[in-house]
């Protein structure tokens, strides 16, 4: 294996032409320079310098070595720069797991912003919901999770995680356009107690929020049609199959034939937060990612309810 330090001596000789000048440039003695060159010749098994007048010139083997030395030292410079950039949070890959609407409304805009501000810091986005996103965090398959408060989420004081709030995502009533309440500016949730309902599948965080909101209003919604796709839920409502609650972050594409009506009082809401493995949030790449996630969440703050 060729010693990189000896290649540095060879490069100094090529630059300065004499052992004495190379020694001065490297802050070595001429004897040390001669010893390094001799050791390099033994490593490569052939002469790399030859005398010419009062100086030394490179042999053919020496010219080959110096060409590789230039490339090697350039790569070492890049390595040092990359390590420094990584330390500043400017270089690396961060894997983010989140539920679909958070991926679209928060993670994707954060990735776009980082591409502009930190072009060598890349986000990898995965569709992973609670509780699987927290298992993925512990197993180091993802670096940051965006989830919502639910029974399947870890407690806020769980020592395995650091977590911080991002936004509250209120739910609005979604009604068929010809529903008697469709033109109201706001309605009480219990006004829908006798309706047929469309909602998320059992065991999901979104269903938990829906059921909790209805329970607070004093009823259990008779869910007949189920899907975890909010676009499909609204399409079902447009088809007259029932009513639903849909979070505002999922209302980017409201189909024709439905009305979005705000709920009076304090509506049920998804409490969206981000989490990392405790301690990992100090990593510069994660600190930069957190800033981008928080900025995207602030811009994604749900607008008022609207009708279509």
Describe the structure in your own words.
The chain is α/β, with parallel strands linked by helices and 308 residues long. The protein folds into three domains: 4-87, Winged helix-like DNA-binding domain superfamily/Winged helix DNA-binding domain (Arc Repressor Mutant, subunit A, Orthogonal Bundle); 91-166 and 271-299, Periplasmic binding protein-like II (D-Maltodextrin-Binding Protein, domain 2); 170-269, D-Maltodextrin-Binding Protein, domain 2, CATH 3.40.190. 41% of the residues lie in helices and 24% in strands. It has nine helices and twelve strands. The protein has helices at residues 4-16, 19-26, 30-44, 60-87, 100-117, 132-138, 205-216, 230-238, 284-299; strands at residues 49-52, 55-58, 91-98, 120-127, 144-148, 161-176, 186-187, 197-199, 223-226, 244-247, 258-263, 269-277. The strands form three sheets. Strands 3, 4, 5, 6, 7, 10, 11 and 12 form an eight-stranded mixed sheet that branches. It has a two-stranded antiparallel ribbon with strand order 1-2. Strands 8-9 form a two-stranded parallel sheet. Strand 8 (197-199), helix 7 (205-216) and strand 9 (223-226) form a beta-alpha-beta unit. The longest helix has 28 residues, at 60-87. The mean pLDDT is 92.
């Amino acid at each position: 294996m060729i010693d990189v330090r000896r290649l540095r001596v060879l490069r100094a000789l090529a630059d300065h032409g004499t052992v004495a000048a190379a020694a001065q440039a490297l802050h070595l003695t001429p004897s040390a320079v001669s010893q390094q060159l001799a050791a390099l010749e033994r490593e490569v098994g052939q002469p790399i310098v030859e005398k010419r007048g009062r100086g030394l010139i490179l042999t053919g083997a020496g010219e080959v070595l110096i060409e590789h030395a230039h490339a090697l030292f350039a790569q070492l410079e890049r390595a040092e720069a990359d390590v420094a950039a990584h330390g500043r949070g400017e270089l690396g890959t961060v894997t983010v797991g989140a539920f679909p609407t958070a991926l679209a409304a928060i993670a994707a805009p954060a990735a776009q912003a980082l591409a502009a501000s930190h072009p060598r810091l890349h986000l990898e986005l995965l569709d992973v919901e609670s509780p699987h996103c927290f298992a993925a965090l512990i197993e180091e398959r993802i670096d940051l999770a965006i989830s919502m408060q639910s029974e399947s989420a870890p407690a806020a004081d769980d020592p395995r995680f650091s977590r911080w709030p991002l936004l509250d995502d209120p739910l609005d009533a979604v009604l068929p356009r010809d529903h008697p309440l469709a033109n109201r500016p706001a309605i009480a949730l219990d006004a829908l107690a006798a309706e047929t309902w469309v909602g998320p599948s059992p065991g999901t965080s979104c269903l938990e929020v829906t059921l909790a909101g209805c329970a607070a209003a004093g009823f259990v919604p008779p869910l007949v049609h189920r899907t975890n796709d909010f676009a499909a839920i609204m399409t079902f409502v447009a088809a007259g199959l029932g009513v639903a609650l849909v979070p505002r972050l999922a209302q980017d594409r409201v189909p024709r034939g439905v009305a979005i009506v705000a709920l009076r009082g304090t509506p049920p809401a998804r409490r969206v937060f981000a989490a990392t493995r405790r301690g990992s949030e100090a990593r510069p790449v994660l600190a930069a990612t957190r800033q981008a996630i928080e900025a995207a969440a602030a811009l994604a703050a749900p607008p008022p309810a609207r009708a279509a």
